[in-house]
Design goal:
Helix content: 25-40%
CATH class of the largest domain: Alpha Beta
CATH superfamily of the largest domain: Dihydrodipicolinate Reductase, domain 2
Distance between the termini: 38 Å
Number of helices: 10
Bound molecules: nicotinamide-adenine-dinucleotide
Number of domains: 2
Structural class: alpha/beta
Number of strands: 14
Strand order of the largest sheet: 13-12-11-10-6-9-8-7-14
Length: about 350
């Protein structure tokens, strides 16, 4: 294999065009865009022209090309079909989240890639945000103490749009929880470890389409910590600050705007070395906090470079298909809880 990974893209017209091609594949130090395919040929030709590569006329043309890896960025209900087609053509695959519509689909994709001896990744790129990585290091160094509670929020305004696949649970696998909450849950597992029990509510509060526009989930981790995720398609963009809050026995790490597609965001840690004595009056002094400002890193570039490096080094990637499957298991437990009204246990 060459030192650069040759990439093809299936579903070039959406997030691929907006973010992953320009910021990830074109910018990636070990990546080379070779060919793009989209079922909407006019859009595909525009993307091909913009980035100076051939526009495949059909899926076979892309799969028969000399690419090493394919980035699948089609709607969720097509992930299974496209990942399996790539695997059978001997191509490594980085599939967008969610990994298909269900646990069963994710398992089928993983099995197909294993059988074909190709790597499968799931593009849960928010793990690579440099402030998230800095927070993870603080937690791993024990600076937060014992994990106690976390909150992750990701919401946007998503009014009814005719034909929008995310507004039809059969095509998107769910609504705000599947689409946005999956990122939050994945981040919280990265920070606090395995989730073992979930309780969830979903609702259509404002928009009455075929997937939920509202979801809150309460999570319990194996280490005893608790968390909540709130994720809505019916909160105005400007009014949701997409907060991330991580609390431990020795302090907290509080962020705004780090969850999302951009590199920006503010994160402050309030940490103390020693346990304070019990203060019955609970008077609070305004701690200045430690601003967490590592050099920003583009998350799309980071995911493409990490996937490429894993291929060049012959190792599993940090965002392997198993993470996408794990995400599906937790999301599925959340939907089961929302339906049954009971908490659901996970392995
Ligand atoms: N990680 C992120 O930041 C992020 C952001 C947005 C979307 N996503 C994920 O990316 C995927 C795509 O989302 P999107 O917002 O780009 O959707 P989209 O609908 O905007 O774009 C999907 C593209 O796939 C094309 N397509 C549809 N059917 C196809 C087929 N059979 N063959 C080839 N191309 C086909 C469409 O024409 C379109 O250009 C989803 O899984 C979504 O969850 C991830």
């Amino acid at each position: 294999m060459t030192r650069k990974i040759n990439w093809g893209v299936i579903g070039s017209g959406g997030i691929a065009r907006r973010r992953t091609i320009p910021e990830g594949i074109v910018a990636g130090s070990n990546a080379q865009l070779r060919i793009v395919y989209d079922v909407v040929s006019a859009a595909n030709e525009e993307v091909a022209g913009e980035f100076g590569v051939p526009a495949a006329r059909d899926l076979d043309e892309l799969l028969n090309s000399d690419v090493d890896a394919v980035y699948v960025a089609t709607p969720a209900h097509l992930h299974r079909e496209h990942v399996i087609a790539c695997a059978q053509a001997g191509k490594h695959v980085l599939c967008e989240k969610p990994l298909g519509l269900s646990v069963a689909e994710a398992e089928t994709m993983i099995a197909a890639c294993q059988a074909a001896n190709v790597q499968l990744g799931c593009a849960l790129m928010m793990r690579f945000h440099s402030q998230h990585q800095a927070a993870l290091r603080l937690i791993q160094q024990g600076k937060l103490g014992s994990p106690v509670y976390a909150r992750a929020q990701l919401s946007c305004w998503y009014p009814p749009i005719p034909g929008a696949w995310r507004q039809n649970a059969d095509l998107g696998g769910g609504g705000s929880l599947m689409d946005l909450g999956g990122h939050c849950i994945d981040l919280l597992e990265m920070f606090f470890g395995h989730i073992t029990r979930v309780s969830c509510f979903i609702n259509n509060t404002v928009h009455h389409y075929g997937s939920e526009d509202s979801a809150t989930a309460i999570l319990r981790f194996r280490n005893g910590a608790l968390a909540s995720v709130d994720t809505f398609f019916c909160i105005q963009d400007a009014s949701s600050k997409n907060v991330l809050e991580l609390y431990g026995s020795k302090g907290s790490i509080l962020a705004q705007g780090t969850i999302g597609q951009g590199m920006a965001g503010e994160m402050v840690a309030y940490l103390q070395e020693e346990d304070a004595a019990y203060e019955a009056r609970q008077t609070r002094t305004d701690g200045a906090g430690l601003r967490i400002t590592p050099p920003p890193r583009n998350m799309y570039q980071a995911e493409i470079e990490e996937f490429g490096e894993s291929l060049l080094e012959g190792r599993d990637c940090q965002i392997a298909g198993s993470i996408g499957l794990r995400s599906q298991r937790i999301l599925s437990a959340c939907y089961e809880s929302a339906q049954s009204g009971r908490a659901v246990d996970l392995k």
